[in-house]
Each structure stands twice: as structure tokens, then as C-alpha cells.
Protein 1
Amino acid sequence: MADALLPALWLRGLTKTYGGVNVLDGVDLTVAEGSVFGFLGPNGAGKTTTLRIITGLAKPTSGTARILGIDVSESAEDVRSAVGFLPDVPGFYPWMTAEEFLRFAGGLFALPRDVLDERVPVLLDLAGLAGVSTRIGGFSRGMKQRLGIAQALVNAPRLLLLDEPTSALDPIGRKDVLEMVASLAGRTTVFFSTHILADVERVCDTVAVLDRGRVAASGPIDEIKSRHGAQVMDVEVDAGAQGLAERLTGEGWLTSAELDGERLRLTVSDLAAAERAVPAAVAALGLRLVRLDAGEVSLEEAFVELVGGAR
Amino acid sequence: MKGFGAFLRKEALETARTWRIWVLPIMLVFFGVTSPLFAKLTPLLLKSIGTGDSDIVVQLTKPVTYADSYAQWIKNLAQVVLFTVIIASSGMISAEKRAGTAILVLTKPVSRAGFVVAKIVSNLALLAVAVTLGAVVCWAGTLALFGDAPAAPLAYGTLLWFVYAALVVSVMALFSALLDGQAGAAGAGIGFYALTSTLSAWPTATAFNPAVLVGAAAAAMAGHAVVPVGPLLIGSLLVVGCASGAVWAFEEREL
């Protein structure tokens, strides 16, 4: 049964087929307890389907999904007691107020009244909805999303599942939701599906990249970046950039070189070697170095390498 | 049936806060008021046609009584009210699926059986309260206008009708669990009503067809002693059967 040493989420060989199409094609994933885990993937990669299986809303064609060691298909209701979930478009009862909805959600977990009396004001405050007496039908999308996170926390879950929580929000709404998620780090395990890479870089410590129903890569963000992201170096000289490009061609560390006037963008596989060789080549050609920037690898570049090549 | 109580409380609150509280109760109270009124006024209106220079002579063979008021009441229950029940309950389950609220509820420790049964119970409770209210108003109106209004035939007849109405609600839960579209479920419900009503004209089927309960209700209100054991038994079993079918259908569906 549930144990602190068990992973918060463990998926093995998860497949889901709709009309002969494999939406999930053998998903293997382990999410350590306590992490803020980004589940990245382009639209249609299978992120929402994975979450629907994890939450018991859909059944896998094959494979196993375990939450805190409990098989989802065998004890779905027990599993859900330890989980909080926010769907991509949360549906609320428009005639309820935020407080009423949180109390209703707590009631579904059979939480005693005194626990709710204590917890609901804290969650309303966390969601920035304290003192809001308007019915949910009059809420903005951002308010609904923040309420969605608050209701997912009402049972103090050990695993919080968020499906694209920021995808339809304006910049302020997005910032508010990301701050809420960031504030949960260390208090619960957060599994955060999204296609917005900047959000993942901002709040997550570990990621998995899902591509066409398969996990293309998984691990700490820095590891994914260094393993899959090509590094970039921008070089600008006063004249003779063409000659510099020709001189560097054939270097083992150089993947590609793009010439733009007197500027060169070098894609490199070994940044340290490039940092030694480029100034030496500039000096050997008698050129004046105007600018040399070794660009930091972004998750976007790693993501594009993982899922973009075959598109 | 985990989560049944909490979800049923939500259903009760939703009934009180939304259009649901108005449609059936107001309709049934309206029919409770108008049934005795129409029964009393119709002969007077007909007689008025035969007055003055008109060549038409209207002769009523028997005086109007409480039975005419009750007949008007059951006629309304059998047609307009049953159609309203079908339409109002056609999105019982599918509407929550479409709105996304079912996902938030069912990703908590709530069983799908608890969800469906709470829906059926809340719909039946509202119908029971509304029809009781309407029947009481009808009885009071009948007493006021006719001076005689035995309560037992009205109560018994309304109860027989309610068993068939409960079956309609249960059938609608099944259709709403099976079909995503509210219009499709409403159409299937009207089809069920038409089929069972047509079958009630077939003598062989009267022993078990629950739709016979509507005719039996009219007979009971007219003062006849009727005990439709077969239709009552079959109707009650079908209520449970359709509710179980709705639970099964909803459990099999992916959200």
C-alpha cells in the first residue's frame, strides 16, 4: 500500500488506443515524491489522455498506473483520496460561490466540518479569492483556474495533478497560477502538464517530454538540456566573417554555422572547445572580435530536438 | 456508493438555487388550481353557448362533481406533466458531463453509482414534493368549489401515477447515461412513453405494462376500486432495473 518511499506516480507500458490509433504507445514514467514535475508535450502528444487514465476517468488499453503504490484500476476511489486534480478546463457550478464549492469538494472527501472551517479560508486566501462573494458564474477564467487549484488542494493531497493550468490564461492570470504552483514546492508532489516551456522552466525541477504517445526523455531539467539541447555561440567580427566560417568548417565541435553579414551563429556540440578555438581562429585571421556570446541552452531547444525533428 | 450524501446535498441546493425549483412545482400547483376550476366552469361555458338566439341547445346529462375535477388533474399529469418530466430530466447525467462538472466530482472519492443514484433520488424527491403540493391544492380547490372532495381516491390515484412517473425518471437516467445529447435522450424518452402508452391499449399487455398505471389512476380517482398489482410490481422492478442500467452505463463510459 501507500508508502513514503514509493514514487508518487509510476506508469509502465501505458497504452491507449482509440479507433485503431495509439494515442499512448507504452508510456513509462516515474515521478518522485516531493518533486514539481513538468509533463511536456506538443498538442496531441497524449498528455491529457495520460492524466485521464491516472485519475480513473478513462481506462488504459494496457499497462499499469500506480499512485503512491496503489494500482489505479484496482482501487480508483482509494487512490483519489490522496490526489488533487485540476482539468484543463475546470467545470464549476455557476450558482455556487467559491467558498461553497470548496466546502462541497471537501464534503466529497468526507472531511469533517472543523477541518473545512480551518482549511477553506486558507485556500481562498491562497487563490486570492478571500472575500469574493460573487457566484462562480461571474468569475474570470483566471479566477476559475485559481479556484480550480484551491479545490484540488482541499484534501491536502500527496499528489497534485494539473492539466495545462495556464494554457488559456492572460499573462497576469498565468503569473498568478504559476506563483501558486511554485508556492507548493516541497509541500506536495506536483505533476504539471503543459506545452508552455517557459512555465516548466519557471516552476519545475524535473520534466518528461511526451511525443506521439511516448516518453522521449525524462529527468532533471538541467540534465535534459545538456543531453538534448544544442548549444549556440554568436560571434561578430568587424570584417571577414565569411573567411572565419570557412576556417571553422570541419571542426569536430561545430554542428552548423549560419552567416548573417559579419555575424556568425555557431551551433556547437562542445562549448568549451568552441570557446577556445573561435578566439584563436579570429586572431589567426587578423580579425577584430566585436562580440562573442555563448548562449545558454534553453529547454525550448532541447524540446525542439526531442519532438521537432520528425514534424 | 461513496460520496452519495455529499452529492445529494449538492443536488438539493442546486434544485433550490436554479430553474429546477420553479418548473415542476409551479406547473403542478397551477394544475392543482386550474383542474377544479375548469371542471366547474366548463359546463357553465358550454351552457352559455346555448343561450340567447343560438339554435344550439346544450344539455348536461349529469351534474359535475369532484370526480370531474380529479379527472382533469390526472389528464394533466398523464400528458403535460409527464412530457415536462421527460424534457427536464433528459440532461440529468449528460449535462454534468458536458459542463465538465462531472470530471471535478468524479476525480474525488465519489463512486459513479453514488453520482447516478443521487441524481435519480433528487429528481424523484422534487417530483414527489411537487405532485404532493399540486394534489393538495387540487383537493382544496375541489372542496371549495364542489363541497365534496374525498382525499383517498385523489391520493391513491396520484400515487399510482407517481410509480409510472418514477419509471420515466429512471428511464431518463438510463438514456442520459447512454447518450451525450440531451435532445437524443428526450426523443428516446418520448419514444418510451409512446410505446408503453400504445401497449396499454393491448389487452394482453395490461397485466404487466406499467403505463396501465395512468389509466388505473384515472379509474381510482373516479371512485373505482383498482389494484393493478402486475403493473405496480413490474413498474417498481423496472425503476430499480433502469437505475441499475444507468449506473452500469455510466461506469462503462469514459469521461
Protein 2
Amino acid sequence: MKKIILPFLCLILIISHMTGCVEEEQVQEKVLIFGMAGDADKLDPADVTDGESISRMDNIFEGLVEYVPGGTEIQPALATSWDISDDGLNITFDLRENVKFHDGTDFNADAVVFSFERQYNTTHPHHDYGEWAYWGYMFSDIASVEKINDYKVIIHLKKPNAAMMTSLAMFTVAIVSPTNAEKWGEDAFKYPVGTGPFEFVEWVKDDHITLEKYDDYWRETAKLDKLIFKVIEDPSSRLLAIQAGEIHGMEYPDPTSFDIIENDDDLQLLSQAGMNVGYLAMNTGYGYYDENENGVRDTDEAWVETPGYFEPLTNVLVRKAINHAINKTAIVESLYKGTAIAAKNGMPPFMLGYNDAVEDFEYDPDYAMELLDEAGYPNGFNTTLWVMPVSRPYMFDPPKIAEAIQSYLADVGITVELYQIDWSTYLEETENGEHPMCLLGWTGDNGDPDNFMNVLYGANSASIGTAGNVAFYNNSEVQEKFTEALQTYDTDDRATLYEEAQVLIHEDAPFVYLAHATQNIVFVKNVKGYTLNPTERKFFYQVDLE
Amino acid sequence: MIWYISKRLLQLIPVILGVTIIAFSLIHIAPGDPARTMLGQHATEKELNEIREKYGLDEPIYVQYGLWLSDVLRGDFGRSIITREEVLDEISSRFPNTIELTIMSMLFATIVGGLAGIISASKQYSVTDYTVMGVALFGISMPVFWLGIMLMLVFGVILGWLPIGGRIDLFIPYTRVTGFMIIDSIITFNLPAFISSIRHLILPSIALGTIPMAMIARVTRSSMLEVLRQDFIRTERAKGLSERAVIYKHAVRNAMVPVVTVIGLNFGLLLSGAILTETIFSWPGLGRLVVEAVYERDYPLVVGCILIFSIVFVIVNLITDILYTYIDPRIKYE
Amino acid sequence: MNRWELLKNSYNKLHSYLKRYSIFHVKYVDGSPRETRTQELVRRFRYNKSAVFGLILILVLVFMAVFADFIAPNDPNPSPPELQNSLQPGFWDENGAEGKPLGTDMLGRCVLSRIIYGSRISLSVGFVAVGIATALGVTIGVLAGYFGRWVDSILMRGVDIIFSFPALLLAIVIVATIGQGLDKAMIAIGIVYSPQMARIMRGSVLYIKEMEYIEAQKAIGSNNIRIIFRHVLPNSLSPVIVYGTLLMASAILDAAALGFLGLGAQPPTPEWGAMLSESRFYIVSGAWWAATFPGIAIIFAVLGLNLLGDGLRDILDPRLKS
């Protein structure tokens, strides 16, 4: 018996090494496998808010305009040119001709109108198939989209919007095939058909999504033949997979492994300052129900207590105390391992209107306890902190950060219980205001400060059920500044308004701003042509595998 | 014999019914409206009303149970809340992976454990004996997940010999026939797939199979020791048969009886362990599915998984019992 | 008497007192040892090396749990956290953290201290879970075994149903229903193990039922409850003790598994399984200690209990081996 076992084991080991040789013969077809930390939620570009879904779709769909590689300036895409009227209320687009969707149908004005209308028109037959959360955040100023002829549309705005053009490069207003949407009805989110360089092949849930080069693309076809997004949730497995050459690229490398990656000659680490913010949001108590779904709080929509209403957190002294109790520098150094900078404002430093004059809350637990005492909580209190279970661009390991925060708050007498739930439910519950405190953050979508400030800190965004403002911070003065800034085209005026707003926010302290994290992607050495985009969207069109 | 089997099958029925009752009650114990529990947060009023009618959620509970059960018997386990796919589809796509892992682990455990036990028994009180039994003792004390992590560390990270996750390398084309990757790759003459799937199976199988292996080793040893003491062995030895033949031809066959029982009992351990092993090795199987389903409160999926797990477990136990009687006709069951 | 003699006197009195009642000291009568039953058990135990070893391991564990405050080098949950010590190696590395022999985890906490405090958790989980299992199991088993016939049938069917779920799966499902947390995990594991206890108890009861003096008691007319409490239960004690120990080993493993899956102990509790799951991703980056040592702790605890249980089985009731 023993005589058989040993040679058998050797045989297995030998064969294991042989497979290395077999794998290399696959190079004729250029297949790039990219390791993702999670699966997509849906594949309808207008109905998603999470980076996982967005990454897949940015290679299938396109919009009227697109970002230049690596930046947030826009260039023509499905629209060849546009004209903004003098009052800023109408934008006329000339559409590109001879573009076909992946299913062979033509791209034309009907498709544009369909893609937009299903989101804002509550009577549209497809309106109930999705939640269209982003429409409320960014596009509620659009009154209607009108077709003039097959290749001309006009977008009518309710009021001038300085960020609208850059917003139109977002995935929310990517153009989908109406024929396909009609064919699949409510299941259309599983069968994406767009005009982009890659077409959809298959989606095996929680495993992978395969995209193939679209041969009739209106520009030069992509260099890659196949693009596969593979789900590998475990960051260790992802790293080992890329080291073993099983995948060619991956997102969200664990900050503790950066040394290893940088010392590995076969890997390249791409980094860029991130256009994001990670924060601890404290539910200040009151939200509203946006009955007419217009993204704005009308006078008849009253402030009501959110489900997560927690009295201590309605007191600004308590919120300031919490700010003083958390040592952000330590967290950034030790938990982010230097892959982030400590945050003091709600948007990253390089953005228009960033107020550097704001002085951050210093780490001072004794002072924090004084504040708590003053607020009437000398013995602290108990509460719950909602924690996300998945890596985000602004926080690689939320549970660890939550534990650290738990420990800091325990030091000043606040006992925190951690509450974790799966990602989609987490988003739902926080959008519903069920939390007293939660960890969350945001990655910028269009490079415009409004995309941060208005969506995250505006009172209009404190709508229960679709809140972008998860601290339910309802300062009307701040909201006015945002609204004004959005309608102004003068950048200096806008900057002043945002700076003033940041001062007010700092005084009210509804958030503990933690960090702005760098964006990091790892590739194997022979992947060329990938450009990081500040929005952290992943475009593989220009990428080549050598 | 047939009589015995049919009797046991009949006894199975109330047990399986009991399992379904427990599974069914989960949906109703869970906080909230049962219709919502079955469909999830996103369900529209229309869908909720459809389900309410279908399962008669206003009717007495035994009627609901009956309706639900009749659906289940027809294969309709409902839809997963998260993916909106049929629960049965989700389960059947992952089921073969778990079975492959379990069988491989069982093979590993039985072969290595059995051999160890036999060798140990034949060299009782020697250094080999103590070493093997010592290792076995460690084996049954080890947490599956820790062993998996250690194996990953040594063979995946430090030595880099074996892959640490997934079922098969990613860019190897693979056609699915039965869902059992090993069988499929043999059927389709797909050597790279075959090799890759075996490589990916090695570490998880060892991790999962170690505890049963240790148990089997111990039981085999004690069983062998008992058998070796018996008279008929002395007779064989007296006849002049070599020690080896005595052991392998005669003793083993008789010693296998309690071992078979242990294998059957261990199957439950394997299923439990599969849950942990699949999580660590990112194995796309039923164990990982059920953990995720529980985490996401995807009740239809949880219920479906529980039913399948239990039914498989019960059937395996039945088979073990039957084998037991077959191997040892001395035991008569009333 | 002077002080010295007083001392000798008291020592002698103490010694003879101990000799009379000690379980270790065997009286000799006419040159041959007469030992009480307890003394016999103790002697057999001492000679069973593995049982002794197991007992030592468990005693170490208990010692760690009881005296954690004194023997742990650091605070297992420093507040505020000392993040600057994140992921530092221990004594084997020259850059190792000072005062933290086994290194630190991601949040800078001393691994050794957490392991020591974690013993409290594991032991209490083991006790409580097995306690629940025993309470439930003994009740069911005694009822089924003693009253027999249809009571037995129904109860055993129920037990079979619970048996038809793989242990961990059932625990996970129970936790999913009643909620997460260490206390809920204990209840879940207790429920999952009660069938085993029930079966053991039932077997034991059946065996004892056959014994003649039970028949005799019934003949005299003692009522059932009296018989159960005065005769059946005490005689079934040995299998319960043996299996209780062995089940405690499994309970610790399962509690660690639940902690590993995030369904048991919640942060910042230093439960061994949870510690493993928290730190397993850092192995790839080279920080292997935070995940390895908690696992070793689990092994020793479980090993100790298994050895002890085996040993107890050997000495109390070799019959149970089959």
C-alpha cells in the first residue's frame, strides 16, 4: 500500500505543475479576467447606485457624452454636438448616425427619449420596473426630453443647472435599447443591450459576467476579445489569484498587502487620489416623504421622525463630542495603512469650492466627555452603529473601522453595538433612516461639487426611503446655498457658496468625516492602456493584453 | 431484507414530513408578514396578493402547509428573493459541487483513515500506533476552518503549489453535462479541465476530510483490535497464513462493520463542515449558498437548502443502515 | 507544649483526618488494599495517561479563564484602541511588539491576552450549551425510556427529526431565526445537541429498567417519580458525564464555527472563532499570527476535553465504547 501512495502523490504534484504549461496556450484570444470584490446588483445602468454594477455596465453602455480618459471633462460620444440655450433651460443635441445597439437595432432619438423618460415619467410603462434613485439625486432638474427628429433631441430643464453637462456622462443616462427593454420587460436588468465596445454574453450570479468584443462598434473595435468580470469576494484569494496569473487585474487590494504587490515584479499597482469621502453619519432625527417624487421637499411634505430617531444624536454637542472622541489620524495610518488622507470636509481637497480654512475637530476624549456632560449625558449612552459588510472605495474594511470607532466611543462612555447586514439591505435600511449611526461614504460621479454636497448634505436629499443624506441633516440655509450654486455658472460664485456651506456643516457636525481614500487597482505586467478615472469607473475599451 | 428496507423507508416518511414542517415554520416564525418573507422587500402589492392567494395566507395554518407542501413536491420551491431565480435552479446548479467535495473528502477520509487504523491495529502499542493515534486525536479536535486556513497558508501562499479558491481555473473552457466537474471533464475528454478541477479539489477535500479521517482511523483501529483477538483469527494464523493475509483478507472484512456506521454518522459532519470549507475556499457549493442565504434573509432559499440537506442526510443514513445489515447478517432488526 | 509540638500535633491531626477521608489514600487491611468506589475510580484515572493529560489541559484552561485578569499581559480590548500597534509580530521576530509575545491583530490588540480572555467565553459556551442539551436531553430521554411504548415512539421520532439536520446547519438556522449573539448561539447549540443526550439517557434508562431492583421497587409500590429520581437518574450519571464532556468539546468547536461565520460572538468579544475570521485575510500579507494562535487555542481546549471524555469513558463505563 505504502509503495503506491508515494508515487501517486508525486504524480499529482507533477501534474499540478504541468497545468501551468497548458494555460499559456490560450493566448490566441485576448481574454482579460478582472477580479471584482462583489457581484453586480442589476445590469440596468439607470437603476443602480453601486460601483460593482456600474463597472460592468460602463463597458456595455454609452451616453450622449463621455469623460475623457482619466478626467472628468466631457467629450462627444453618442451625441456629436450640443447647444445650450441662453437661458440655460434647453440643450439641443445632434445625435450620431449609423450607430447600432448590440441587438442590431438602430440608435436614434427614440432610444434617447426612452432611456430618459422611463425614469421621470411616472406613467411610462417601464417606470415601475426600477427605482431610478440617481435620477432623484442628479437629474430632477430635467423636465422632459423631446424628440425633434430621428437624430435630434432637446432636453428641457426646469431651472439652469451648471453641472448638467458633466452629469450627462454618467451611467444613469446611458442609452439602452428600447427594443430589448420591451422584449424582456421587468427582467430587462438581466439582459443589457447597449452601444458600447463590449456586448453582454452571460451573467452567472455570484460567479462571473462575460462580455465579448462588439464587432459593429461605431469606433474602432476594442483590442480585447473577451472581458470577464470574475467575482472573488475574499481579498486574499483575489491577491493569490492574480499572483498565480489566474486573473489579470483586480480591484480593492488589501492595504496590508501593498508591500507585497510593490515588490512583485509581475504586478503593477495603479494608484490615484480618490474622489471620494468615507464618513460616520449620525442620524439627526428628521426626514420627509417625497410623495410626488420630484427630489425636492415641497412645503406640504412635512418633517417627520425617522425610524432611527435617537434623541442624544439630535443634540449638536453630542455630535461634536463624538467627533472629538475619534482619532482619525490613527485610523488613517493604521487601518487604511496610509492609503488615504484624513478628511475634515465632505468632499475631497482638489474639488472646486473645498474650504481648507475649516479646522478639523481635534482628537480629545477628555473634551468630548465634557461636551457629553454639558449635553446632559454624563454617563454616556448606548446605541447601535450600522456597518457595511463589503469593501467600498472609501473604506476597505468597514468592520475593522467600526470596531475601532466602537473602542474610541467606549472610552468616552458611549457603548456601541455593531449591526451588520448584507449590502443591498444595508443600502435600503440606511436610505430609510433606520439607523442611529452608520458608516457610509460616496464616490464622486461627475467631478462637480454639487454631486457631493447637494446629494449628501442637502435637506432635499433627506427623503425617507431614497435618502442620499443619511444623516438626515436638514439645514435649509445650507440647502439654499446648494440650490443657488447649482444654478450659477460662475465658478467663483459657486466656490464661495460651497465654502460657506462647509462652514455651516462643520458647525452642525452631522457627520464624522473619516477619510478620502486613494483608488487602487492591480494589474499583471502585460496589461497596458488602462487609465484610472477619478470617478472610479472602469473603462476597458483602450486596454490591451500583451 | 426487502421487508426491512421497505419498513425503513416507511419510517423515513414521518421524519421527512417533520423536516418539512420545521422548514415551513421558519417562514412563519421570522418576523414580519410571511408573504413579504417569501418575496422580499421589493415585492409589489400585486405580487404579494398573488402569493397570499396562492398559499391562502388567510387560511388556517394546516391548509397553508398543505398548499406549500404540494408545491414543494412538484418542485416549486419558490424564488430567491435576491436573484429572483427559482430556488430549485439555484440549488441544482450548486448541488453537484458540494457532492463532489463531500465524496472526495469521504474517499480521502476512508482510505487514509482506514489504512491508518489498520496499520495502527496491526502494530499495537508500537511507536507507529501511538503516532497515528496521536495525530488522529489532534484531527478530531481541529476546527475545520482553521485547518483550511493553515492548508491555504502552507500550500497556497508559502509553497504556492495549489490554488486556494474556486472550482476550476477561470479561462479553461468547460462544458457542463452532469454538473459534476470531474465526470464532465472525463466525458468530454477535457484534460485541462480535469486536471484543474482535481487540483482545486485537493486542499478543500483534505481540510474537510481530516476530522472524519481521524474518527475513522480510531474506530477502525479499535474494531480491528477486537476482531484480531477473536478465535477465528487464531485459527487462520494456526493454519500458517502470513500475518499480512490474516489482516487484510480476514480481519478487515469483519472489522468494517462498525466503520460503516461511522462513515454514515460522519456524513452529517461532512455536510456541516462543507459549509465552513466552502466559505474559506470560495467553493461554489450548497454550503456557501445557505450561509449567504441566511445572511441575506433569503428565506425561500434557506428553506430550500435545508430541505435538500436534510433529505440527503436522511437518505445517506438509510443507506448506511441498509449496508450495515447487508455486511453483517448476524444483526437482525425487528 | 511548646510551639513546635503544637504544630506537629495539628499536622498529625490533619494527616489522620485526610487519611480517613481522602480519595487518594488507600487503607490496607490485612495487607491488601480496600478501596472505596471513588478511590478505585481515581486510581484508574491516574493510570490512564491520556485522561490525566486531558485533565491538565482543561485545568490550564480553567485557570486561564479564572485568573485572566492576572495572567494576561495586556488589556484584550484597550479603549481607546492602540491602532499604532497594528499587525505586529511577536517574540519570534526582532521587530516584534514589546510586551505582546504573540503579536497583535489589525486593531493593535495583544493576541495572547485575547486568547486568554477568550477561554472564558469558550468555557462558558461549552458549559451552558451542554447544560441546556443535558437538561432537555435528560428530560426527553428519561420520559421516553421509562414510559416506553407510544411516548417513546413519538419522542424518538422528534429526536430523529432534529437528528436529520447536520448540526452546524441547524445551529445556523436557529440563530437566523432567533438572532445573532453569543447567548443565542449557546441556546442554538444546546438545542442541536439535545438529541444526542436524549438518546444516551434513553439507552441508559432502558438498561437500568431491566435491572431487578427496579422491578422490586415497582412491586413494593413506589411511584414512578420516586423511582426515576432516586434510582434511574443517579445510575445514568456516568454516561451523561462522559458524553457531556465530549459534547462540550463539540460545542466549543461549533461555537467557534458560528463565531467564524459572524453569527455568534459579536465584536469586540475575544472569541477564538471570531478572532480567526477577523484575521484570516492578513495571512496573505504575511501576518499569520493573528489567525494561527486562536486556532491552536481551540485545538488544545477541544483536545483536552476529548482526552478527558475518553478517559472518563474508559474508567467509568468501558461498555460505552461500542
